[in-house]
Amino acid sequence: MRILLTNDDGINAPGLEVLTAIANDIAGPTGEVWTVAPAFEQSGVGHCISYTRPMMIAKLGHRRYAAEGSPADCVLAGLYDVLQGARPDLVLSGVNRGNNAAENTLYSGTIGGAMEAALQGLPAIALSQYLGPETMELDDEFQAARAHGTAVVRNLLDKGLWDDGNDYRMFYNVNFPPVAAAGVKGVKVSAQGYRRDAFFGVEPHRSPSGRKFLWIKGGPQHMPTAPGTDAAANLEGFISVTPMRCDLTAHDALADLEARLA
């Protein structure tokens, strides 16, 4: 099996080392694990691509590359430059430091990498480690992902819905709960949730020269979402698995809107 890895935390992120171990387990001794990850952190860039500027790519080691671009850029670089068109069997993105549940999903570069792979017709899984008070006390804050990641990926490969004939191919968003590995209660298939009153905003600051700068500021991350959704499952100690597509159409509203506008 040939697996392509990327992330949004950057080529030197500890979560990428966890993902590499998971991928090596899945690929086996005869498989290939290739990494094309951002040279610098790209958190929050979503599915952006560097459409208006070129990006530099550098080989750092055996099957290991860094690109000056987004996670989606890295997937494109991996497919069409590094692998020279030899398509991978699977694309894994992560393991992100922090959750990509609920509304975070829409901002996430980790999700963006998996999304680009799906648009390219490839099986893809994004993996993220929810953080919290319990993970702060651990020597390895990725303990849950490290211990359970291989089993979750293998189970999705064996039993997940993949090429079902839909033009927008299915991909998966996996979030590991903010607990120690031994505290993980299981896996729940979950819808994407919504944290109310947890919006992103800005916080202004003045530099020593008097110039005004704005920092993007996130909302609280430990507000539970509705029952049956991702963040709620994570905060209960479960690994959430959310099937996703790139189709943003509100299909449930089509007939009603057509009738209203007729």
UniProtKB/TrEMBL annotation:
<feature type="binding site">
    <location>
        <position position="96"/>
    </location>
    <ligand>
        <name>a divalent metal cation</name>
    </ligand>
</feature>
<keyword id="KW-0547">Nucleotide-binding</keyword>
<dbReference type="InterPro" id="IPR030048">
    <property type="entry name" value="SurE"/>
</dbReference>
<dbReference type="GO" id="GO:0000166">
    <property type="term" value="F:nucleotide binding"/>
</dbReference>
<comment type="similarity">
    <text>Belongs to the SurE nucleotidase family.</text>
</comment>
<feature type="binding site">
    <location>
        <position position="9"/>
    </location>
    <ligand>
        <name>a divalent metal cation</name>
    </ligand>
</feature>
<keyword id="KW-0378">Hydrolase</keyword>
<comment type="function">
    <text>Nucleotidase that shows phosphatase activity on nucleoside 5'-monophosphates.</text>
</comment>
<dbReference type="InterPro" id="IPR002828">
    <property type="entry name" value="SurE-like_Pase/nucleotidase"/>
</dbReference>
<dbReference type="GO" id="GO:0008253">
    <property type="term" value="F:5'-nucleotidase activity"/>
</dbReference>
<dbReference type="GO" id="GO:0005737">
    <property type="term" value="C:cytoplasm"/>
</dbReference>
<keyword id="KW-0479">Metal-binding</keyword>
<feature type="domain" description="Survival protein SurE-like phosphatase/nucleotidase">
    <location>
        <begin position="3"/>
        <end position="196"/>
    </location>
</feature>
<dbReference type="InterPro" id="IPR036523">
    <property type="entry name" value="SurE-like_sf"/>
</dbReference>
<dbReference type="Pfam" id="PF01975">
    <property type="entry name" value="SurE"/>
</dbReference>
<dbReference type="GO" id="GO:0046872">
    <property type="term" value="F:metal ion binding"/>
</dbReference>
<protein>
    <recommendedName>
        <fullName>5'-nucleotidase SurE</fullName>
        <ecNumber>3.1.3.5</ecNumber>
    </recommendedName>
</protein>
<feature type="binding site">
    <location>
        <position position="43"/>
    </location>
    <ligand>
        <name>a divalent metal cation</name>
    </ligand>
</feature>
<feature type="binding site">
    <location>
        <position position="8"/>
    </location>
    <ligand>
        <name>a divalent metal cation</name>
    </ligand>
</feature>
<keyword id="KW-0963">Cytoplasm</keyword>
